[in-house]
Design brief:
heterotrimer, A mainly alpha, B mainly alpha, C alpha/beta, B: mainly alpha, two-stranded antiparallel ribbon, globular, C: alpha/beta, 10 strands, 39% helix, 23% strand, binds adenosine-5'-diphosphate, binds magnesium ion
Chain lengths: 309, 295, 253
């Protein structure tokens, strides 16, 4: 395999390196940071939806678990941010592992229903347990201190997240071209065929679900610390949908598509602020338009157009 | 035991079957569209919202109730057709996930338009025949609940007749079993789609109109109502009309009981907990058939 | 002890008895064919033996061990591999990757080592690529080594399934109509390929409608009709069997 698989990674690295020097102010830096956070979550989700072919309409629930673990454990129980973050990831992972066996017996719309239900239950819990979570108003989150070093300010966060994103991209590219990743794609392509060559389908679905849930939770923690505040919206059904939309618009089973999808959909609401009241209509129309004319998503469609896969 | 449990139980039961009837209508809407086009229409809840909000709007603009109601059923039916023509047909062979996003896009458009023109306020209109509660065994039942149940029963009966006695109804059923075979025997499957989406829009709207005097309405009530209708459709087993009705009632009753006896704060979580439990044990819902996938 | 022993195997779907009380044994190292009209239950028999369906009744023994109802991915460990009558190619992958998936059980499948691209994994994958390309050449797909699966014609996909099955280095290979839909030239290539595979010591169980091919390469033939065993024996025996002749001429009661 030629190195060309990583060309995109190098391009992104270069863009990330020069971007802060081109952006006029912290507003754009903040936008870039949020794009990177979303891109990381979407990468994990795309492994599940795009590569393994298993839909999840409740992934924001896992983001919420991470965000609230970081908020609640540090604020109410004075845990260190790192310990809280890991506890959230552990919680998300255990929950995902517990529900994975029964959930992944389901297919298609039944799977969509089950994951949606799981996500909604998490978001309702977060909203209701006001004594811990602040309820619908949300709660503040202390800064992210790792050992004696504290990350603060857009600049620092930008570099930290650039590192996380590049690492995630590199690892994802590796993963999908490893024996594990091929088994994952194979069970999407044909479940029986993958079974008869020895792929324990249930185990692989569980593994990637847990993996993407843990990753979503970790990024939820990062978001909470970065923003310094968390509201139940992070765990909402609508946030789940946003994440899935990023996957699909960028391109299912496309690593770089995940980044593009996250960038576009994070920027879109900003771009639509000029529509005064019509934002929702515009957002909905754009979703429909993209999906009708590019059902495979942006990156795969363009790649096919320019004769590359 | 102090003998007080019965009135309370009945009270929960009444409110359960009342919302359950509306869920059943929404679930039937899901089922119709699912059978006709294998799509789960996430905009189904918006039909419910449209029914209530449009009635409010037409009443406010001075129309008499019957006219307002007819228009508030007709327009969502039209919206259903538009969704089918503009969004579903062009994307025919797309994957499940893609189709889900398309219908979610449609729901955002509908919700957004309503928000722009009718605002974010909460609305209601008077119950159809007063709000003097009827006492039954110590519990009370609002006349509007009877309206909900009566109309829902009528609609279900009419649908039953439509599907078993009319050519068009049978054509829709045939298409849902085997689309290709239906086309081969000369069924106009694009008409089937057209009618299914229109009916689905109308059913949702009827539920929304009936419920509004009891539960109020606003531009954003469609999300939760729609999702619970989806739960109801899945409880019964996707594609089964009877399953949708029973699923709707079951979801409504269990939600009301859970809210009453366990926790009203977690009312909205109950249907979703229920569906998880059901799917864990019955991966195709209560009435879904067990089949061996062919290889 | 025979490699594979099937006794009193039955599978019922709703009311349909797809396989009824079928018994037979396959010795190691032979080519064993299963023939019969469409709907006779041949594919169902394969699905039962390879663990896709759970038998309604009966036993299946591999090396004397009862494997009825054991999951397909477990059976793969015991050296079973198969192809499908209705193509089961992963259209979301390249042809070469499809073959590489066949080697699944022979690889280090650790998620983290894969994500961090451990040198051991990278090295093994590079070698596997060569191995898979070699297999594609063996089945006559050298022209498609760089192709994406969804860009390949039907005949090529059928052979791709064989290459994938071979990548598992099986002891028993089940081929469900490998020549169906192929032109005469491709059919004779598959014929030669099956022989080559059998000669390399792999036991082959074959379902095929091409009688010339079946009669030529089979050591033993099982005839199914309406889910029942109609006859079993060498090619010459089966050809002479009056029940078989009747069934194939359509005068079956
Ligand atoms: N998954 C299934 N569900 C229901 N019936 C099946 C299934 N698989 C096979 N059958 C039925 O079993 C019978 C045998 O089919 P099959 O094994 O495919 O025959 P063959 O491969 O010999 O042509 C047929 O009547 C077929 O319809
Ligand atoms: Mg067959």
């Amino acid at each position: 395999m030629p190195r060309s698989r990583f060309t995109g990674l190098i391009v992104i690295a270069v863009v990330l390196a020069v971007l802060p020097f081109l952006l006029p102010n912290n507003f754009y830096l903040d936008l870039a940071i949020r794009m990177m956070i979303n891109a990381c979550i979407v990468l994990g989700l795309n492994l599940l939806i795009g590569f393994a072919g298993q839909i999840s309409l409740g992934h924001a629930g896992f983001v919420g678990i991470g965000a609230y673990a970081s908020a609640v454990l540090t604020t109410h129980y004075s845990w260190s941010p790192l310990a809280a973050m890991l506890a959230g990831a552990l919680g998300a992972g255990v929950l995902a592992a517990l529900v994975a066996r029964p959930i992944f017996k389901l297919k298609g719309h039944y799977l969509a229903m089950a994951t949606l239900g799981l996500g909604i239950i998490i978001s309702i819990i977060v909203r209701n347990e006001a004594a811990l979570t602040g309820g619908p108003d949300g709660m503040p989150v202390p800064a992210l201190a790792l050992f004696s070093f504290e990350i603060s300010g857009e600049k620092q966060w930008y570099w930290v997240l650039s590192g996380i994103l590049l690492l995630s991209l590199w690892a994802s590219l590796n993963l999908i071209n490893s024996p594990f990743g091929r088994a994952l794609r194979a069970l999407h392509g044909s479940e029986v065929a993958s079974q008869v060559v020895g792929v324990d389908v249930a185990k692989y679905k569980l593994a990637i679900f847990v993996f993407s849930a843990v990753f979503a939770s970790l990024m939820g923690s990062v978001t909470a610390h970065y923003v310094g505040f968390v509201t139940p919206n992070v765990a909402d059904f609508f946030h789940s949908i946003e994440l899935v939309t990023m996957v699909v618009i960028g391109g299912m089973a496309s690593i770089y598509g995940s980044v593009i999808g996250a960038v576009l959909l994070t920027a879109l609401p900003q771009a639509l602020t000029g529509f005064e009241g019509w934002e929702t209509v515009a957002f909905g129309s754009i979703l429909m338009f993209c999906m009708i004319f590019m059902p495979k998503g942006l990156v795969p469609t363009l790649a096919a157009k320019f004769g590359r896969r | 035991m102090n003998g007080e449990w019965l009135p309370q139980f009945l009270q929960f039961l009444f409110s359960g079957i009342t919302v359950g009837a509306a869920y059943a209508l929404a679930a039937l809407g899901f089922t119709l569209i699912y059978n006709a086009s294998n799509v789960i229409n996430f905009a189904q809840g918006e039909f419910i919202m449209l029914g209530g909000m449009l009635t409010v709007f037409f009443l406010q603009s001075g129309m008499p109730m019957p006219v307002a109601v007819v228009l508030a059923i007709f327009i969502p039916a039209l919206v259903g057709i538009l969704i089918e023509k503009l969004a579903i047909e062009p994307a025919k062979n797309a994957e499940v996930t893609t189709l889900i996003i398309i219908t979610i896009g449609a729901s955002l458009v509908i919700r957004g338009v309503v928000q722009v023109f009718l605002g974010k306020g909460t609305h209601s209109f008077p119950a159809f025949s007063g709000s003097e509660p009827i006492a039954i065994a110590g519990a009370t039942l609002l006349p509007q609940s009877l309206w909900v149940l009566g109309v829902a029963a009528l609609v279900v009966a009419a649908l039953g007749w439509f599907f078993s006695r009319t050519l068009m109804g049978k054509a829709i059923l045939a298409t849902s079993y085997n689309r290709l075979a239906a086309q081969l025997v000369g069924i106009n499957t694009s008409r089937v789609l057209f009618i299914s989406y229109a009916l689905s829009g109308a059913l949702g709207a009827i539920g929304g109109i009936l419920l509004t005097p009891l539960t109020l309405t606003s531009y954003d009530v469609g999300i939760m109502l729609g999702l619970k209708g989806f739960v109801a459709a899945v409880v019964g087993g996707l594609g089964s009309g009877l399953g949708a009705v029973i699923g709707g009632l079951l979801v409504g009753i269990i939600e009301a009981m859970g809210a009453g006896y366990i926790s009203s704060a977690y009312k909205d979580a109950i249907p979703f907990g229920l569906i998880l439990v059901i799917l864990f044990f019955m991966p195709r819902g209560l009435f879904g058939s067990k089949v061996t996938d062919r290889v | 002890m025979a490699l594979l022993e099937v006794s009193n195997l039955t599978k019922i779907f709703g009311g349909v008895r797809a396989v009824q009380n079928v018994s037979f044994a396959v010795e190691a190292g032979i080519v064993y064919s299963v023939i019969g009209p469409n709907g006779a239950g041949k594919t169902t028999l394969f699905n039962l033996i390879t663990g896709i369906y759970v038998p309604s009744e009966g036993q299946i023994r591999l090396d004397g061990r009862d494997i009825a109802g054991v999951a397909p991915h477990e059976l793969a460990r015991f050296g079973m591999a198969r192809t499908f009558q209705n193509l089961q190619v992963c259209m979301n992958m390249t042809a070469l990757e499809n073959v590489m998936v066949g080697a699944h059980l022979r690889l280090d499948r650790n998620l983290f080592k894969g994500a961090l691209r451990f040198p051991s994994i990278a090295r093994r994958d590079a070698a596997l690529r060569e191995e898979a390309a070699e297999l594609m050449r063996l089945v006559g797909l050298e022209a498609f080594i760089d192709a994406h699966a969804d860009a390949m014609p039907y005949g090529a996909l059928k052979r791709l399934e064989i290459a994938r099955a071979l990548a598992a280095k099986p002891r028993v290979l089940f081929l469900d109509e490998p020549a169906a839909g192929l032109n005469p030239k491709e059919t004779s290539e598959v014929d030669i390929l099956v022989r080559k595979v059998a000669d390399s010591g792999v036991t082959v169980v074959l379902v095929e409608h091409d009688m010339k091919m079946v009669m030529n390469i089979s050591d033993q033939i099982l005839v199914l009709d309406y889910g029942r065993k109609l006859a079993e024996g060498s090619a010459a025996e089966v050809r002479r069997n009056p029940d078989v002749i009747a069934a194939y001429l359509g005068t079956h009661q």
